[in-house]
Design brief:
mainly beta, eight-stranded antiparallel beta sheet, 39% strand
């Protein structure tokens, strides 16, 4: 979902942060002023791995992860409430979309009935299971919402095509869309449920789907809420089940960033990011990409040029629309999201949830 933030101020702060080099000024990111900032790791009280994250505000955020865990904070991470759906301990939550501090939709991944969607309207006090996959060939990975009512979820290919699930009532009910307008999948192609960002939207109708695992990494685009799609090759490492596009972010219907690479720690990812300025019809490799595989990415809302990318080996910032990246933190994160009030959150392994704080050193080494 779209969110807002003053990109210029944040870029200046981040680029002057720990472990980073001073960046040249741009129109959207003036020269750093000496301020420093970093991730402040919060005590989540769990060792779950959080690949699903929804930043609502500086005070409120939701995280969804392994062992059926859903957490919510309303005090900026000082305390976290376990609001996991009852009986969900065997499920793997990989995506969560929150409309505010009370309403959220969470996606569990897996083969067959392991793929489910739950919805809450009371801050997680109660949950309703609104979808359970009954097709053993389907495996749902990611979810996105255009607004508070309309959203989509995607499954890995079924009978040679990606399957799209649609809701028009805020996640209360779902239906499978016709596959006529979906291009054929490549052999071995799938989505990566790594950060909740393999399916993203911008505006009322545009949505993009990230792929990997096949001969070519691709990004599929739909301009009609998932009815018809066009596929484009992306210059991200491919040709192996562990490689491809893992995360997407669009600041509007034309300008986007793709991140990914090879998620294996012992394999290099020399071309881990790419950009588009035409809605995904063409992609250009980043001239100075992140130094390693990245699974999550977000635009700094309110900025035309500033973005954050995260992965197991660190956080990178770009002040030129994704063309060049600078590492600003070495802590492990799987996903990142920013809220309309200028707060940015990240989450990942071993219960790690953090909020970016200006004027502090990063807690890069904390678990």
């Amino acid at each position: 979902m779209s969110v807002g933030l003053c990109g210029a101020a944040f870029a200046a702060t981040v680029l002057a942060g720990p472990g980073s080099a001073q960046a040249a000024p741009t129109a959207d990111a003036p020269a750093p002023t000496g301020q420093r900032g970093g991730w402040d790791v919060k005590d989540s009280g769990t060792d779950a791995r959080f690949r699903g994250l929804a930043a609502v505000s500086r005070d409120t955020a939701w995280a969804a992860g392994s062992k059926g865990t859903v957490l919510r904070t309303t005090d900026g991470g000082a305390s976290w409430r376990d609001v996991s759906p009852p009986g969900a301990a065997e499920l793997e939550f990989r995506d969560i979309e929150a409309f505010d501090g009370r309403r959220a939709v969470v996606l569990a991944i897996g083969e067959g009935e392991a793929s489910r969607v739950f919805r809450t309207a009371d801050g997680g006090a109660t949950w309703t299971e609104s979808f359970r996959n009954t097709d053993p060939k389907a495996f749902y990975d990611c979810m996105t919402f255009f607004d508070r009512r309309h959203g989509l979820a995607m499954s890995d290919p079924v009978d040679g095509k990606y399957r799209i699930l649609s809701t028009g009532d805020g996640g209360r009910s779902w239906k499978v869309l016709p596959s006529d307008g979906m291009p054929a999948a490549q052999e071995g192609e799938a989505g990566f449920a790594a950060s909740g960002q393999c399916l993203v939207s911008s505006g009322p109708r545009d949505v993009w789907l990230a792929t990997g695992g096949a001969a070519r990494a691709r990004v599929l685009h739909s301009a009609d809420r998932g009815r018809t799609w066009q596929a484009t090759d992306a210059p991200i490492p491919a040709g192996d089940p562990a490689r491809g596009v893992f995360g997407l972010a669009f600041r509007d219907r034309t300008h986007g960033i793709a991140v990914g690479g090879d998620y294996r720690a012992d394999q290099p990812s020399p071309k881990a990011a790419a950009t588009t300025g035409d809605g995904g019809r063409t992609w250009t490799p980043s001239a100075q990409p992140p130094p390693a595989y990245r699974s999550g990415v977000t635009w700094l809302p309110g900025s035309r040029t500033t973005a954050l990318a995260v992965g197991p080996t660190g956080t990178d910032v770009s002040a030129d629309g994704g063309r060049s990246w600078h590492t600003v933190d070495t802590g492990s994160y799987d996903t990142v999201d920013c809220a309309r009030d200028r707060a940015c959150w990240a989450s990942g392994e071993k219960g790690r949830i953090a909020r970016w704080e200006r004027g502090r050193q990063s807690d890069a080494g904390r678990n």
